[in-house]
Amino acid sequence: MHNYSAQPTDAVIMWVDGSDPNHEKKLNSFLSSRGLNRSGSASKARFHDAGELDYCITSLLKYAPWLRTIFIVADEQHPHLLKKLTGTRYESVVRLIDHKIIFSGYDKYLPSFNSMAISSLLWRIPGIADNFLYLNDDFMLIRPVQPEDFFRDDKIVLRGKWHRLPESIPGFQILRLLREKLRGKNKKNHISYWGLQQSCARLLAFKSNYFRLPHTPHAWKKTSWQKLFVEFPNALQRNISSQLRGADQYVPEGLSSHFHLKNALAIIDNTHTNLQLKPTAQSLWRIKWKLLCAERNENIVFACVQSIELADEEKQKLITEWLNQRIGRLEDFIAG
Length: 336
Fold this sequence. Notes:
By secondary structure, this protein is an alpha/beta fold. The protein has one domain: Spore Coat Polysaccharide Biosynthesis Protein SpsA, Chain A, CATH 3.90.550. Helices cover 38% and strands 17% of the residues. The chain has helices at 21-33, 44-47, 52-63, 81-85, 99-102, 115-119, 172-183, 193-203, 222-231, 233-241, 252-262, 284-296, 313-326, 330-335, and strands at 9-14, 70-74, 94-98, 131-136, 139-141, 151-152, 155-158, 161-164, 209-212, 218-221, 266-268, 273-277, 300-305. The strands form 4 sheets. The protein has a 5-stranded mixed sheet.
């Protein structure tokens, strides 16, 4: 493997196998104790594992060999890929971290089925580098990247765009009242990824704009998270105490981005962009077009494939074959 003299950088991936009987039993027991069912933030799709983790890990090993350690954070689960890595030079690179470790001192909030709670505590992994990447297991690299694509001059690199906060738009309050009247008061409280990022901006005292993040790996700093827990204890306590996702939480990637922007610790660079596939919502033609663009545009270095298991067979085959060609299978990579 390569040796890199730059400041060490780690990667952290949250993972869950919702088909695991023990996990399913634990979740159902939790929901039953609170009179809830498996819908919304507890839906099966949110916890399903369709093999994305293998592609995620393979892409990091292949396209970011400068990473020191890749941590997989799970709840008493062991991904099959760890067996594949046993006895290889990558066995010590990929490590498993249980929820109990990062929730130490907050044990009363376990079990947690809330990605925002879990990701709020990733910085507490023992021995993690100050610079680390946070990824969902359906994030992947499809081209080589370098440390400076994420960290420069002790600052993090952000990707995304500024957008107006709704309340700063003239006439917004009137429009909101009309919309609520038309929809009725019984509309469920929808958890919006953009709305959660807006809440983060407000918490950090941004008045007019918020920074909207795409679905890409996020550059984080352990020292920044330590400061966030000191400066906003109530907000972070709310995050980690919620065992299911809620609309009144703060999405951690939004907290991190706005904290770094507020303190001039971020560089915005959209040179590298992402391919986002939503096979249940996108037509076969659109997916083919997106894959063609990803092949031709060298600035597309990230991919996010959401809920591939819910797509029809033709779409699944198309995407899987493309991932095998672009990233490759883990077995083939470690044997190479």
